[in-house]
Amino acid sequence: MEPVELEFIGENSLVGVIPNFNHDSIYLISGTIEPFRGGTPLYVPLWLAIHLRQQQKCRIIAPQWMEIDLLEDIKEAEKREATFTKMPSSNYMVEAKLILTTAPEDVPSSEQIKTLIKDIYDVRCAKLRSTVETFLSSEGAHTVPLENVTVFELHTIQPLLPHAMDYLSRIEQTKKALRSNITAHSFSLGSSSGLTSANQQMSSSGLGGSGSGVNSSSVGLSSSLASRPW
After folding, report:
1. What is the Cα Rg of the chain in Å?
2. Which of 12, 135, 180, 225, by CA, is between 20 and 30 Å from 157?
């Protein structure tokens, strides 16, 4: 997927808003949005929250996971563990980018939270690249643990992964061809040795004897003809 497509998917995440206007329910394909009542919180798709916030018609409620202590714990866990930590939102990067860019004043300590999210993202991407390098160096012999990796993070290795998988496929095909050639060569040598032994046995017991019989008959016939009167 392209970054625009990933952002489109992330924009469907629900986020809390506090509207400053009244409006009836909105009926969408994805579902019905509750009526808007000034000062009453409700959940709407992220794309709608951003649209309303840009028109100064609401205040965005920061997601629960945008909390400094929680993000610091996640950051330390990512550094400590070899595997990937489960993120509180599978679209955390899209949500953070849109909310912190559009309404940073609605998120307490927004700059510190932005730094923590970026640090977590960098650590996870570095870990992901290291995992892929290990997979390639083993020529596909080891599995790659990608549990809890988000689609947005996988996109960072998208340019590399298809070429790497094609490279491993070619290596495997070359190995199979070499094994087939070695097996065929061994079978050819074995067949040649068997034919040589068979020829030697036939010469010593069967065909060689027939040859001697023919020669003896010829000698006898010659002697008979030589003694016949003319």
Report:
1. 40
2. 12
